[in-house]
Design brief:
heterodimer; A: about 200 residues; alpha+beta; five-stranded antiparallel beta sheet; B: about 800 residues; mainly alpha; Adaptor related protein complex 5 subunit sigma 1 (chain A); AP-5_subunit_s1 (chain A); AP5Z1 (chain B); TPR_AP5Z1_C (chain B); Adaptor related protein complex 5 subunit zeta 1 (chain B)
Chain lengths: ~200, ~800
């Protein structure tokens, strides 16, 4: 099962280090078991920990993506689209997976699968023994849906104030973090449902 | 896309002040109280979501606002965007004590699902997980199998099980198993009717027709995730969800419970039941629910395997087929572990599958779970695992090292299944050259994995070869890049480093004369021999500036450390000697990537000292090689750390206390060699080509010479002469420029101290060659500081003494 889904910024590999890696959206499905903490403000501390875990994952994904782009010799501006009409070639987007050991930063060992599209990083934090092929496919699907339905290719749009659409997509395609075996027709059916609730 | 506008928006959200937030909350509350929840409300909620989620610190929202959010979420009729935003805000705030939602307030399953997501995010402080589980189960039980919207609830169950396996009782598990069985096996085989909400419609006016397979043919058997149609019925949705959570459910409700390791006595049981079980499946209905579910799961997996032979019309379906194959194999593995009677039927099916997939590079990732299955159950069924490994370890890494996902999965496969290899670990250890290809190409992602895997790969028979391979890892990266350029293009986008077009070495790479070396570098199995790849280093020099090569070079020191900590566990005396010789030889013969040599030298010199400490007698055993090393050092500056370590080790361990075989002759021979080296480094004029050697080298040479003299006292006059010459040299006016002020000062001071020490030969011997009993309670663990301290102390004593004596 998926523990978390996040979208964050990806800075170009050779750019000067301006700014930080920003998590633009994150959704944690369920919560890690909180240790018995009698101190006050335990809830706030848990939330802080959760946010920091997500940020740690985002930073690591950014660095992996940057290293992969450098290694393949792609120019730094490769993450920007050529034009808003071209479909984004997701099968050739930089992607990868890495493992996080127990305690660093999550309690359990987890695997992260990531994808880099349009200077945005998309990542799924999975349990250690999940079906990676399915996770990869789901991540690609989510990226495609978000790019399409949030019109991310059009200049000037951003996803910061569109959380309702992102949530709508997640509740259908990754409900409660459950990876679904959706064939093409099911995907189309769900997309139609989504478009009905969120007209363009 | 992250523009400056977005950055400032994020900034505003993070920096909003408490007062402003309070005003905003009251605006939100006002909007939510209205009858008509329009676009203004949605817009405000979007902003509120951003404010809450943008910062990792807590945001205090007004109680009224939070209560209204909760109430809006649970309204009987509420547009979905609003519901979803309320839920998202409450979830983002969690865990929080101000969330007072309860499952009782929900009117339909969609709301229940949203409320559950918030409750499950509270961290289970108040047993929320169990409460949610009970509620959802009640909802699942109370409705008919074809009731609307149950599909919102199954994922919640799945999540609950993952978070807290004990949240369900025995009878509840049994009941849910029954429902899952129905959904998996008896979903409708007719297509659903079109409806805007996608709900099941009872109108029978138009028969939409049967479901189809992914290749367009009419479906031949029951509905599965690989069945398609234009519209779907509710139970077909539930079929998809049930399969998606099947493996986790089987593990949860299995006899051994979640996460239990394979028991050794299972194989005995497997062996005995094989002869009894027939090939036909049991009559379904008479089995208890759990066993019935397993039977249905088995049939489902077999059907998926059959369906995956069809040629899908759409790319998305083709990808799904592969994911389904992986899942089917994983589920079959679980089934066979829980109930060995499935083994007989499964094996023939999976062997056929393996045969079909071996030749297809697109399906290579399915081979990994298959291999794991054969590893786990192979013994019971006398499967020829050799053939499985052969293909997997020999061909796959050599051809597909460039795929980052495959590389990751392959290495995980090795790591996670070490215990299953048992006595066959040599398959893994002999395949290290192929495994290193994954590492060389994908070093940032895989370095940590290999550091964990190395202890299993390291073997006394291949250690020397492996060390060479690790030192040549960046060279392997370069060679793999050139190899990719030579192959026919595998994909649209080139896999090699596109910033380097037509490297000059590509032609030379194909030179027949070098093919022997190239093939050795690119070999798939440990060959048992080593070859000097210096000509390849030179040839591949243009590639040394590639980013991928540099990344690999950065990873090598870490890997070397991991290698040495593993190899010292298994190394015999002879192997230790071989490794030391390797270190000395290779320190001069490394692929020239910027900064690579310096970093590797640091590691090698540290490891050299560690090996000497483990086996001090190697200094005496390898005396001839060490002498040769000292004689052959041309560029001391380039190998300063190695030279320092070797010289120090000689001074420390070339004595009778460490090896009885140490002779005076040996000490004298070393003395001469070190003396010659000292002259060479101090007399030669520094130039641009040969920079001055660091002062540490000079001081360690002087100290070692003195140590040797203290053991063979005839040498004392010679060394005293040497030291006074050095002191004079350091004191002369033009001396400071080559070594710098500090360096010259250090040389002068050390020379003086050593000279003072030599005035008392017996004390010198005690200080410079302490016996082991004296060494052990040393208070300074860092040996580099202990001796200078001793020298300084003695020196001061001697000078004081000299002052008191007449003349």
């Amino acid at each position: 099962m998926v523990h978390a889904f996040l979208i964050h910024t990806l800075r170009a590999p050779h750019a000067e280090d301006t700014g930080l890696c920003r998590v633009l959206y994150s959704c944690v499905f369920g919560a890690e078991k909180s240790p018995d903490d009698p101190r006050p403000h335990g809830a706030e501390r848990d939330r802080l920990l959760r946010k920091e875990q997500i940020l740690a994952v985002a930073r690591q994904v950014e660095s992996m993506c940057r290293l992969q782009l450098q290694a393949s010799g792609r120019p730094p501006m490769d993450l920007q689209p050529q034009s808003s009409d071209e479909p984004v070639p997701l099968h050739e987007a930089p992607r990868g997976a890495f493992r996080l050991a127990a305690g660093d930063p999550f309690q359990e060992p987890r695997t992260v699968v990531w994808l880099g599209v349009l200077s945005l990083g998309f990542a799924l934090v999975l349990d250690a023994h999940d079906n990676l092929l399915l996770a990869e496919g789901t991540l690609r699907l989510l990226a495609r849906l978000l790019v399409d339905h949030l019109r991310l290719l059009a200049p000037g749009t951003n996803l910061l104030l569109r959380a309702d659409r992102i949530e709508g997509i997640l509740t259908r395609f990754l409900p409660h973090g459950q990876l679904l075996f959706l064939n093409d027709q099911f995907v189309q059916g769900l997309e139609k449902e989504f478009s009905a609730a969120w007209p363009r | 896309m992250f523009t400056a506008g977005a950055e400032s928006l994020l900034q505003q959200a993070r920096e909003i002040q408490a007062e402003e937030l309070r005003k905003f909350c009251s605006r939100v509350s006002k909007l939510l109280r209205e009858e008509d929840l329009g676009p203004d409300a949605i817009d405000c909620l979007r902003r509120l979501f951003l404010i809450v989620s943008a910062t990792k610190y807590n945001r205090r929202l007004d109680k009224t606002c939070v209560d209204l959010l909760q109430a809006t979420l649970c309204l009987p009729a509420c547009p979905e965007p609003l519901q979803v935003l309320c839920a998202a805000i409450l979830r983002e705030m969690s865990p929080s004590d101000s969330v007072t939602l309860s499952c009782d307030h929900t009117h339909n399953t969609r709301q229940l699902s949203l409320v559950a997501s918030i409750l499950l995010a509270q961290g289970d402080r108040r047993e929320e997980v169990r409460t949610v589980a009970q509620h959802v189960l009640r909802a699942l039980e109370s409705r008919q199998p074809e009731g609307p919207s149950l599909r919102h609830l199954l994922p919640v169950m799945s999540k609950v099980m993952g978070l807290s396996p004990g949240a369900l009782q025995e009878d509840q598990t049994t009941l849910l198993s029954k429902r899952l069985t129905d959904w998996l096996r008896y979903a409708s085989v007719q297509q659903g009717l079109p409806h805007s909400g996608g709900f099941f419609s009872t109108s029978r006016a138009r028969q939409p027709g049967p479901i189809t397979e992914v290749d367009g043919a009419v479906a031949t058997d029951f509905f599965t995730v690989l069945s398609t149609g234009h519209h779907f019925t509710e139970d077909q949705w539930l079929n998809v969800q049930a399969f998606s959570m099947l493996r986790a459910w089987l593990l949860h409700s299995g006899p051994e419970g979640p996460g239990a390791p394979d028991a050794d006595d299972k194989s005995e049981l497997e062996g005995s039941t094989l002869s009894v079980i027939s090939a036909t499946s049991t009559t379904g209905r008479l089995l208890p629910p759990r066993e019935r579910l397993r039977e249905v799961a088995f049939e489902y997996c077999q059907r998926l395997i059959e369906q995956s032979t069809r040629r899908a019309l759409r790319k998305g379906d083709s990808d799904l087929q592969k994911a389904c194959l992986v899942e089917a194999v994983l589920v079959l593995d679980v089934l066979c572990r829980q109930d060995p009677s499935f083994l007989y039927r499964t094996l023939s099916c999976l062997k056929a599958l393996h045969g079909r997939l071996s030749g297809d590079p697109a399906c290579v990732r399915v081979l990994l779970p298959l291999a794991r299955f054969f590893l786990t159950h192979g013994e019971a069924a006398a499967v020829d695992s050799e053939a499985v490994y052969q293909h997997l370890f020999t061909r796959v890494p050599a051809e597909l090292f460039h795929s980052p996902m495959l590389a990751f999965e392959f290495v995980q496969f090795c790591r996670d299944n070490l215990h299953l290899f048992g006595g066959n670990l040599s398959i893994l250890t002999l395949s290290f050259p192929n495994l290193f290809k994954f590492l060389a190409w994908n070093s940032p992602a895989l370095t940590a994995e290999f550091v964990a895997l190395l202890p299993a790969l390291v073997d006394a028979s291949t250690a020397v070869e492996m060390l060479h391979a690790l030192l040549d890892l960046p060279c392997l990266t370069a060679a793999l890049d050139l190899q990719l350029r030579s192959w026919p293009a595998a994909s649209e986008r080139p896999l090699w480093d596109t910033s380097l077009r037509n490297p000059s070495c590509l032609e030379a790479f194909r030179d027949p004369q070098l093919q022997g070396l190239v093939q050795h570098l690119l070999r798939s199995k440990a060959s048992g021999t080593t070859q000097r790849l210096a000509p390849l280093h030179q040839l591949l020099q243009p590639m040394a500036s590639c980013a991928r090569v540099a990344q690999c070079a950065e990873a090598v020191p870490t890997l070397l450390h991991a290698f040495f900590s593993a190899v010292t566990q298994v190394a015999s005396g002879a192997l230790t000697n071989q490794l030391v010789l390797l270190l000395l030889e290779r320190s001069d013969s490394l692929y020239r990537v910027p900064q690579f040599e310096a970093r590797v030298h640091r590691v090698l010199s540290a490891q050299f000292l560690a090996l000497c400490k483990l086996k001090p007698s190697l200094v005496v055993e390898l005396a001839r090689d060490l002498l040769e090393f000292l004689g052959s050092v041309n560029d001391v500056h380039g190998r300063a750390s190695m030279v320092t370590s070797v010289v120090w080790a000689i001074g420390e361990y070339l004595s009778v206390t460490y090896d009885r075989r140490c002779t005076v002759e040996q000490i004298n021979k070393f003395f001469e060699a070190l003396e010659a080296l000292l002259f060479e480094v101090t007399q030669s004029r520094p130039s641009a080509a040969l920079p001055q050697c660091p002062p540490q080298v000079v001081t360690v040479l002087m100290t070692t010479l003195t140590k040797l003299a203290s053991r063979s006292q005839d040498l004392i006059p010679r060394v005293s002469l040497l030291l006074s010459k050095m002191r004079t040299l350091a004191q002369s006016p033009g001396a400071s420029s080559p070594h710098g002020e500090e360096g010259t000062e250090a040389i002068r001071t050390r020379a003086t101290e050593l000279l003072n020490l030599l005035k008392m030969p017996s004390v010198a011997q005690f200080v410079l060659t302490p016996s082991p009993e004296v060494c052990s309670p040393r208070y300074h663990r860092d040996v580099n500081t202990a001796l200078p301290l001793a020298l300084r102390t003695v020196s001061r004593l001697v000078e004081k003494e000299a002052g008191l004596l007449p003349g």
